[in-house]
Amino acid sequence: MKKSTILVTGSAGFMGSHLVDALIDQGNSVYGIDNLSIGYLKNVIPKARKTFVKLDLRDRKKIASLIGRVKPEIIFHLAAIAREGLSQFTPISHTENNYNAYLNVLIPAIKNKVRRVVLFSSMAVYGDQEPPFSEDMLRKPIDIYGTAKAAMEQATEALSDVFGFEYVILRPHNVYGPRQNLADPYRNVIAIFMNRLLQKKPFYIYGNGEQTRSFTYIGDIVSPMATAGFQANISGEIINLGPERAYTINQMAEIVLKSFGSDLHPIYLPDRPREVKDAFCSSAKAKKLIGFSDKTSLSEGIKEMIGWAKTVGFKEPKYLRSLELNEGKAPKTWSEKLI
Ligand SMILES: NC(=O)c1ccc[n+]([C@@H]2O[C@H](COP(=O)([O-])OP(=O)(O)OC[C@H]3O[C@@H](n4cnc5c(N)ncnc54)[C@H](O)[C@@H]3O)[C@@H](O)[C@H]2O)c1
Questions:
Q1: pTM for this one?
Q2: Can you say how many angstroms the Cα of residue 19 is from the centroid of all Cα atoms in its chain?
Q3: Which terminus of the chain has fewer CB atoms gathered within 10 Å of its CB, N or C?
Q4: In the CATH scheme, what is the code of domain 181-213+247-277+297-335?
Q5: pLDDT tens digits, 155-193
């Protein structure tokens, strides 16, 4: 494989940091950007530190200047505020950090002749259509986060058509594993459950727990994510990334409790507004095009993550000081800081 100059946004985050490690191992020259609003500097391994820049993608001038200097051939765009359930209460910040921030990257990238952009989108663009979701289904997001991701996808298609760069859109779903932010009370259900159990406290489930999701172990997708930047025949493709097997939140919760050796029981709360009931994807394209294989079972992956979480220990949840909208509709787990 030819070695390339690569820019990874969101490189101190959970998935971005694993991706950077793999791209460096392949011998590429990898630059990372993150504003550390959610990610951690400790996720940036020593080999990646020299080319890591703390930068906020909302700062259009700074990102344009960095891209002009580095002139990346490939950009993996992972930076995001990906708190889907929260996005109805913080629509401006979700738009600024997702859609607007992405355009701030894409425009200078095009001007500096980027060869390929790999956009990390989300299963949220499918909304509440009948699963399993396949890539040929329409975009029908039902929340602010999904709407921003759908707009990012469409902007990519339109600008690629006009300016001729290659792109690949990945739609991962419910990824979990070591380095996930345990302190985020707004997303990452498995990490939230574990952070509660680390304090020997029960966790909360929204609704009756019969919602279905498929869960993706990070170790199973690092190589497919990296491949998306290089594989020749996949430009212009949209690819779901994650396993097909779906679990209810109750089933997943039981596996977490059992693997933790805990005899606590979940506490049930009302549904969150606009939460999709059933959401899982077909993975045929990911298997065929970028070598995805769901090698790690949910119980194996959860055991691995618990091993890591126990070494890290309980993390104090970090709540936002205020929401842009509330009107009493935010779950009490947030307003009363229960998590
Ligand atoms: N983890 C999942 O289950 C999942 C599922 C679907 C899609 N995705 C997408 O994959 C990508 C990576 O997700 P993740 O789980 O690693 O999230 P993450 O929160 O761990 O990483 C995102 C990183 O972006 C950074 N960031 C946010 N706003 C920024 C800004 N304005 N400027 C610079 N950096 C900024 C954060 O500090 C964070 O480190 C995201 O685009 C997310 O939407 C993730």
A1: 0.98
A2: 12
A3: N
A4: 3.90.25.10
A5: 999 999 999 999 999 999 999 999 999 999 999 999 999
pLDDT digits (tens, 9 = 90+) for 71-90: 999 999 999 999 999 999 99
Who's near 89: CB < 8 A, 6+ residues apart? 323, 324, 325, 326, 329, 330
CATH label, 5-175+216-241, candidates 3.40.50.720, 3.40.190.10, 3.40.50.300, 1.10.10.10: 3.40.50.720
145 given a catalytic annotation: yes
Grouping H, G, I as helix, E, B as strand and the rest as coil, residue 281 is: strand
Distance 10 CA to ligand 1 centre (A): 6
**Among protein residues, the one whose CA lies closest to atom 13 of ligand 1:** 15
Ligand 1 atom 28, closest CA: 80
Q: Is 82 in the pocket of ligand 1 (CB under 6 A)?
A: yes
Non-local CB neighbours of 269 within 8 Å, separated by 6+ positions: 204, 205, 206, 207, 331, 332, 333
Locate 43 and state its tokens.
Answer: 């996720």
